[in-house]
Amino acid sequence: MEFLLFTPNKLKSTLTKWQQEAELVDLFPLEVERRLSWVDESLVKANLPESNKTIAYGVFQTNQDVAICTCELVLSDRGQLADKWLKMLKITLSPQIECLVQLENTAAIQTVVQAYKTATLGAFNARLENDAEVLKLYARSEGQLNLHSALLTSLQENDSCITVSTEGRWLVLKTIKEYS
Hints:
- This protein is 45% helix and 28% strand.
- The protein starts with a strand and ends in a 5-residue tail after the last strand.
- The protein is of the alpha+beta class.
- It has helices at residues 8-24, 29-44, 95-102, 106-129, 142-157, and strands at residues 2-5, 52-60, 67-77, 84-93, 134-138, 162-167, 170-175.
- α1 (8-24) runs antiparallel to α2 and α3 (95-102) packs across α4.
- The longest helix has 24 residues, at 106-129.
- A hairpin with a 2-residue loop joins β6 and β7 (170-175).
């Protein structure tokens, strides 16, 4: 799996496939358009200067243009006196995967775990590409809070160049600054 920026082509391919999936699992195809509208908006505004810029990423199978999930990241530039933050606000699964997870399909659950891991590691690397010192991951559900708790423990056990903490529903990863 790969964590990649959306392009207009990837958005079009994802929208088409997700609409087909929605019809198969008895969801409204127009709901898919609503779920992906923010991706189109972020592509339109990609080169505009903003203090809180939405960046559309997705998790894709290698060499594929259809996303397994979308990842809504926001780059918060807090000015010259403060660090930039990159926040992963929301992960939205494809209709088919979402339906299979609700049915407790083991393969779909494994796909979601792998996609979330790919998104987390990808967002951490995207933090560097955007000159952000902090990555914040938001937990929308109890399941995500539990995952954050496990990530926190795992990351704190490793000797690394980051600090990890929680702030409410946020898992916060910061680069340790070295002072010479």
